[in-house]
Amino acid sequence: MSASKKVLVTGAKGMLGQDLCPIFEDEGFEVVETDRDNLDITDENRVETVLNTEKPDYILHLAGYTNVDGAESDLETARLINSKGTENIAKMAQKINAAMVYISTDYVFDGEKQEPYLPTDTPNPQSNYGLTKFEGEQAVQKYCEKYYITRTSWLYGIHGKNFVETILSLKGDIKVVDDQIGCPTWTVDLANAILKIIKDEKPYGIYHTCGGGYTSWYGFAKEFGAKCNPCTTKEFPRPAKRPKYSVMDNGKLLRNWKLALKDYMNLREV
Fold first, then answer.
1. Does residue 226 sit within a domain?
2. CATH number for 52
3. What is the span of the domain harbouring residue 130?
4. Nearest residue to 146 (alpha-carbon basis) of 206, 100, 196
């Protein structure tokens, strides 16, 4: 594959985008960074204008409504961004013959499975956030022929608010949920997995791009040295229902989550 391909990134100023864009630039891609200030994905006309002007080879659709609990009380906004916004991007990707990468989530699953979810497993979201992200997946599959849906989970990175930084900033008697199991994922590892999918020209379809292995939120916190105690989901109620088991089989696209976390902790100390 030619290294001079053009990549347009939505949500480039977000936690993932700030790690992903430099990684793609270092690989020789021409990267067009967009965010809500210059590309409102909910504005169909604006999407059409920008994508017709740029005509990228790839659209990396990182922009999204990510307030999981907020979506429970504001489904309209979550749906406008995650569903309609993604539909707008997918339609234009098809028109300009661009391949689309859509970042989805483990929250599309209900968490009732007893073994790692496969990309072929049927989604059954239990929250408004999960629902709107799944609607985004459906829009991509309906309107765009050349697509990669990349489901990730428990994302953390140096450029945004995340579980690691939140827990480390808390003082006192901290309780962390120990009965929700999933796959922590570092933004840098996710960005590199997306890069690999594109460079290797993998078949279009759905991929699970989360850290390898699994743990609970409590196990995650203990791994990065947090002083905390385990609790149950019932003891720590939240507006949005979380899947109790959202481990995904990543097909060895990403390394073990503990190795990634170690590199992240070293980086944040610099």
1. no
2. 3.40.50.720
3. 6-162+183-212+249-255
4. 100
pLDDT score recorded for residue 31:
98
Total tally of structural domains belonging to the chain? 1
| Residues acting as catalytic residues | 129
pLDDT for 40-61, tens place per residue?
999 999 999 999 999 999 999 9
* Confidence (pLDDT) at 4: 81
The two tokens of residue 102 are: 């859509």
Q: Full-prediction pTM beyond 0.90?
A: yes
Task: Give the per-residue SS3 of 10-74.
Answer: ECCCCHHHHHHHHHHHHCCCEEEECCCCCCCCCCHHHHHHHHHHHCCCEEEECCCCCCCCHHHHC
pLDDT at 1: 52
In a domain, 270, yes or no: no
Tell the burial category of 173 from Cβ atoms under 10 Å away from its Cβ (0-12, 13-18, 19+).
exposed
